[in-house]
Amino acid sequence: MPEQLPADSVGLVTPITQTFSEPLLLACGRTLPSYDLVYETYGELNAQASNAVLICHALSGHHHAAGYHSLDDRKPGWWDNYIGPGKAIDTNRFFVVSLNNLGGCHGSTGPVSIDPATGKVYGADFPLLRVRDWVSSQARLADHLGITQWAAVVGGSLGGMQAMRWALEYPERIRHCIVIASALNLTAQNIAFNETARRAITSDPDFHDGDYLAKGTYPKRGLALARMVGHITYLSDDGMDEKFGRELRAGSFVLGSDELVEFQIESYLRYQGDSFSGSFDANTYILMTRALDYFDLSREYNDNPVSAFSHSQCRFLVVSFSSDWRFSPQRSREIVDALITAGKPVSYAEIESKHGHDAFLVPDQRYRQVFSRYMNTIEV
Questions:
Q1: 208 in active site
Q2: What is the pLDDT of residues 269-328, one digit of tens each?
Q3: What's the main place this protein lives (predicted)?
Q4: SS3 207
Q5: Which residues fall within 8 angstroms of residue 211, CB to CB, at 6 or more apart?
Q6: Which long-range contacts (CB under 8 A, 24 or more apart) does 188-197 make?
Q7: Catalytic residue among 57, 176, 355, 357
Q8: The one catalytic residue among 9, 108, 136, 157
Q9: How far is residue 353's CA from residue 242's CA, in Å, rounded to a whole number?
Q10: Is the full-model pTM beyond 0.85?
Q11: Which of 38, 218, 356, 359 could form a disulfide with 100 if both were Cys (CB 3.0 to 4.6 A apart)?
Q12: What is the pLDDT of residues 142-155, one digit of tens each?
């Protein structure tokens, strides 16, 4: 709990739930008759509604990107390092909107919600989603807020995929697209990691084909294991070695000792898995990873990213991190190369970091400088 809120914090924030009664036709062919989106805002929308920035979250993210919900909070929102007065996304200049995506488990309509057609929890019957469905629902939220054009759409990882989709689906409604630690599509290795995580969940005896809430159970062990697998891929070898090495939490290698040896990294991963499985929904995790797998920016453009980006009208900032092997700098350079070939304005930075894919979330001086200087070029 902070004794007092930091001067560069957006302060205390309250999530807002917006209900949309107009049916939403999804890419899978099914329709949601109505749905809720939970979001937060930071800063003030100017008179011209020209200073709005949309934050698109990654796989396990949500609407609480900055500030505190109460003075009892142990930590702020997940991107508080970069959102706030004087920070990269400066709330003295920008009106920031951060939402929990459709299908999420933090208040927006998703697998834990009640299906109005049956009166029961959706569970595994919640419709499959694509990134374009999130963008469509976000556009409706923008309409509700009176925002006809975003100053910028910003996202890391899966959030970066949403930002790029915005640039193609609503090119006239976005002036800047900021894509951090992302890719045009997933590699086979990435899809394999996601499938392994899903199999950990679905193999849990308490999963019950996704009907666990109706059964009064929860696949906590499977979800914890899925998170452990995922978390390993978000870190780098050097970063893990520097933070944990081969340090022991318990036990000894002394001859004759019968105490089971436990490494610090084992304890850390178990903690991450247990913590995550206590706050996230298993069906949502499956849904989000499938949306990640299915994303391919250029599929509808003859598998040609240059052709895809030819439809964009905005400026781009693309950022990668040297130790990110899940979304490597090579994948970001593919985005940059396609944009250059399409004749689109793009800035690119590769940041030296030991933090792997998680680098886009943690404090880093060079990253902050690049991010801040680009955001300062945006006219509002």
A1: no
A2: 888 888 888 889 999 999 999 999 999 999 999 999 999 999 999 999 999 999 999 999
A3: cytoplasm
A4: coil
A5: 123, 124
A6: 190/292, 190/293, 190/326, 191/293, 193/229, 193/230, 193/233, 193/326, 194/289, 194/290, 194/292, 194/293, 195/293, 196/229, 197/225, 197/226, 197/227, 197/229, 197/230, 197/285, 197/289
A7: 357
A8: 157
A9: 12
A10: yes
A11: 38
A12: 999 999 999 999 99
176 is catalytic: no
Tell me if 73 sits within 8 A of 80, measured CB to CB: no
Tell me if 98 sits within 8 A of 64, measured CB to CB.
yes
Place of tokens 């920008």: 94
Q: Pull the structure tokens for residue 246.
A: 């081969």
Q: Which of 80, 281, 324, 364 is catalytic?
A: 324
Under 8 Å between Cβ of 375 and 318: no
What is the token pair recorded at 100?
């929990």
Q: Is residue 126 helix, strand or coil? A: coil
Q: Which CA distances in Å does 220 have to 7, 198, 274, 289? A: 39, 13, 8, 17
358 belongs to an annotated ligand binding site: yes
| Active-site annotation holds for 357 | yes
What the block records as the tokens of 209 is 């084909």
Residue 15 has what DSSP assignment?
-
